[in-house]
Amino acid sequence: MSFVARFLFAVVVLLLARTPAMSFQTEEPVPMRQVIGSYGLPEHSITLADSLQVAYVDAGRGPKTLIFIHGLSSYVRAWERTIPALGQGARCLALDLPGHGNSSKGHYSGSMEFYAEVLHQFIQKLHLRHVTLMGHSMGGQIAVTAALKYPQEIEKLVLVAPAGFETFTAPEKQLLRTFYTVQSIRNTPEA
To answer: Is 10 inside any structural domain?
Structure first.
């Protein structure tokens, strides 16, 4: 190979190495708030035990309080079309579970008991009583766990395709283990 051909080959390789597809690994992480943007509803944050920051929206008015709990790998936006409709007759609160959306990122057990405890602290800190929990997927599983653990706080449950009642095949389990790794959580930037 001639010197000119090797030189041109090296230039092409260097140019390709600088393309966005190759450079994503060296870029600084983008804060989660910048990625997901504004929720379009009044946003708040509350500090729970162990300095855990939980982001939530608070909309609507009425005699009842509804708390919306998203599923795995989701966040408050999962409820953005539901809250305005139900907020006409009830106070609607939707929280980002720890590790999701604009809430704290960290090393959490991820157990339903952990999230039920977060929900309990959230209810206590906001001085709520006799709430209705609306949970989708994993959020449904959390709602059931919270209702069993803290029945005095929960008046009703609304479960939308709740997790925990199905079984996973070996390939499905492996897919979940592969996709939701400690490293992928660590690489999720904080707000």
So the answer is: no
Q: Establish if 133 belongs to a structural domain.
A: yes
pLDDT band at 188 (very low <50, low <70, confident <90, very high): low
Cα(109)–Cα(89) distance, integer angstroms: 36
Q: Give tens-digit pLDDT for 81-93.
A: 999 999 999 999 9
What is the 3 state secondary structure string of 24-75?
HHHCCCCCHHHHHCCCCCCEEEEECHHHCEEEEEEECCCCEEEEEECCCCCC
The two beta strands, 43-47 and 64-69, are unpaired
Write out pLDDT tens, residues 160-176. 999 887 777 888 888 87
**Any idea what the Cα angle at residue 50 is, between residues 49 and 56, rounded to 5°?**
60
Distance, CA of 76 to chain centre:
7
pLDDT at residue 101 tops 70: yes
Ramachandran quadrant class, 74 (left: phi over 0; alpha: psi -120 to 50; beta: rest) = beta
68: CATH: 3.40.50.1820
Residue range of the domain that includes 99: 29-186
